[in-house]
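User: Sequence recovery, please. Input:
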């Protein structure tokens, strides 16, 4: 066998050198000097064998390893006279100096050039390849089981408690996932149960943080549909912060001269809309990549007359796919729409300075949500303890999609609702039921909701299961997790939905 011949020559002469094969299903190995051993987190079942010389044994083990695409490390164990094969490598285990002097460890080498013309290409590129497998659905070459794409190679997935930084970095076959931990790291751990919150920002146990990236009072939140970055309006800290996925460390996006950051929105062009909305004023600051920062209104006018060219007591913000900006005006009892470039807004829900509980009126307006596909704006009608849905450009008559049965803890009731969000398909509404310290889910059309997080009876607390003043919520782009700004606990919690 050519493999054996080539390998034995090189092994005899230069340990630590690489052996290059040309065929796709062959591999490049690195062999340590004698006296090393591999410390694995996990190993696959080793086959038995007996052979004579050390070199022949290693070559045999090497060829066994090469036949299995999940094998990344191997040695010959003299004590048991077996080849040991591992699916772990130095990214998940380590090669250490061994007390057993005859031990030699071999490992398959993985280089980005191996993948350059294979990975994510059509399946004819990876027939018989040990480096990738054909994904039948997309007909493309993808990483084999127990590995993930790290941007340049298919590298071994990580085991329990190892530090991770991407969603699929952990051993999916062992049901591990990359989750935030109380010590403010992200580590591979068992998928946490639904309704147990994971702390993304702040302290998981109610201890109030004072670090520069901690929050003093998170209010509105949003997650970029483009890159999954979490944006937080830290109302009490008077800043807008951003947090990259798999990072607990934030960055201040805007801070100068803010009075009361209340809400934030990011659109599909990664433009940021940030509401500074104290009682006496209201401004939406706009940061569009590559352009000069702007705001609406251009000049910070604001009077209690709730005129069309001002945003008095601005609260929540949402933007549709055409760039129309919707802003709720807490003390004007309306939601207004500003088309791109407009100097004035128009009322799309509620009646200016006319609070009420009929279907055409609102009584203090908190957060809003716009669903493009539905052409609808959802409004958190705070003091009416209900969520109203309005058709954009319709007759301005709202229909109640959650609550509306008075203030209380019944599952058909809400108590001072704040943040809302709706799934892309328009079928499910999530509500931050602020005074009930809970998150409710309402299927559109139902007359009562169900509990997603927090206490059914409204109890507040700082444990992973409880909330204390949930202000706003946001879905991640895959709609797998619901993020909640847990205001009084000064933290952002995340709940798995499925
Ligand atoms: C060799 O194997 C025996 C039995 O499997 C075990 O008790 C012993 O510790 C092993 N020795 C070494 C050096 O691994
Ligand atoms: C794989 O190819 C698809 C389609 O060309 C592309 O959208 C995707 O970003 C690629 N993925 C990676 C990780 O390169
Ligand atoms: C992927 O993993 C390999 C091996 O650990 C490493 O050398 C490489 O830098 C990683 N690539 C990226 C883009 O992280
Ligand atoms: C996980 O790793 C950390 C840091 O290495 C360590 O302090 C902790 O005890 C480990 N947890 C478990 C369950 O092994
Ligand atoms: C992973 O989860 C699935 C589905 O719950 C289960 O069938 C399987 O046994 C689990 N695997 C491990 C290694 O725990
Ligand atoms: C709470 O968590 C923080 C880290 O977020 C830790 O420093 C602190 O010791 C924990 N306190 C308690 C009482 O567990
Ligand atoms: C917009 O504002 C941000 C935050 O204050 C700042 O970093 C950025 O440089 C500004 N962009 C322009 C074009 O002025
Ligand atoms: C904008 O609103 C202001 C205040 O209500 C009003 O005076 C002005 O005429 C409006 N401008 C336009 C173009 O409608
Ligand atoms: C408003 O329009 C909706 C349909 O969008 C309709 O069901 C409703 O009857 C209308 N209400 C009034 C008062 O016209």
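Assistant: Recovered sequence (498 residues):
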């Amino acid at each position: 066998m050519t493999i054996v011949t080539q390998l034995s020559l090189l092994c005899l002469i230069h340990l630590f050198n690489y052996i290059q094969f040309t065929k796709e299903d062959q591999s490049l190995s690195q062999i340590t000097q004698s006296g090393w051993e591999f410390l694995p987190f996990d190993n696959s079942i080793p086959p038995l064998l007996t052979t004579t010389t050390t070199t022949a044994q290693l070559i045999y083990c090497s060829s066994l390893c090469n036949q299995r695409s999940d094998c990344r490390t191997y040695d010959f164990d003299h004590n048991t006279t077996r080849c040991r094969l591992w699916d772990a490598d130095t990214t998940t285990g380590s090669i250490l100096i061994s007390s057993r002097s005859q031990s030699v460890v071999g490992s398959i080498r993985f280089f980005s050039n191996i993948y350059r013309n294979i990975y994510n290409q059509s399946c004819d590129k990876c027939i018989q390849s040990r480096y990738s497998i054909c994904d039948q659905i997309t007909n493309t070459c993808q990483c084999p089981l127990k590995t993930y794409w790290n941007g340049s190679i298919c590298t071994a997935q990580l085991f329990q408690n190892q530090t991770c930084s991407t969603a699929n970095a952990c051993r999916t076959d062992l049901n591990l996932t990359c989750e935030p931990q109380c010590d403010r790291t992200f580590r591979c751990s068992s998928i946490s149960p639904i309704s147990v919150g994971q702390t993304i920002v702040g302290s998981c146990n109610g201890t109030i943080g004072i670090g520069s990236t901690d929050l003093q009072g998170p209010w509105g939140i949003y997650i970029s549909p483009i890159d999954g970055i979490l944006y937080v309006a830290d109302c009490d800290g008077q800043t807008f912060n951003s947090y990259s996925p798999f990072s607990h460390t934030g960055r201040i996006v805007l801070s100068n001269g803010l009075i009361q950051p209340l809400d934030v929105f990011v659109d599909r062009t990664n433009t940021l809309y940030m509401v500074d909305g104290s009682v006496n004023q209201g401004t939406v600051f706009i940061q569009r990549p590559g352009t000069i920062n702007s705001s609406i209104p251009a000049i910070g006018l604001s009077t209690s007359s709730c005129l069309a060219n001002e945003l008095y007591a601005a609260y929540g913000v949402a933007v549709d796919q055409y760039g129309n900006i919707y802003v709720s005006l807490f003390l004007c009892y309306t939601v207004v729409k500003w088309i791109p470039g407009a100097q004035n807004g128009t009322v799309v829900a509620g009646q200016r300075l006319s609070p009420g509980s009929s279907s055409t009126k609102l009584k203090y307006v908190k957060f809003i949500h716009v669903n493009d596909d539905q052409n609808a704006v959802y409004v958190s009608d705070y003091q009416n303890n209900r969520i109203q849905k309005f058709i954009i450009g319709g007759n301005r008559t709202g229909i109640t999609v959650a609550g509306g049965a008075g203030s209380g803890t019944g599952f058909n009731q809400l108590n001072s609702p704040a943040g809302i969000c709706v799934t892309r398909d328009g079928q499910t509404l999530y509500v931050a039921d602020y005074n009930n310290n809970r998150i409710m889910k309402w299927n559109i059309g139902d007359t009562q909701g169900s509990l997603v997080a927090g206490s059914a009876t409204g109890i507040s607390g700082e444990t992973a299961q409880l909330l204390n003043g949930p202000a706003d919520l946001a879905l991640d782009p895959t709609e797998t997790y619901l993020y909640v700004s847990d205001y009084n606990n000064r933290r952002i919690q995340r709940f798995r939905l499925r």
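Residues 54-67 form the longest helix (14 residues).
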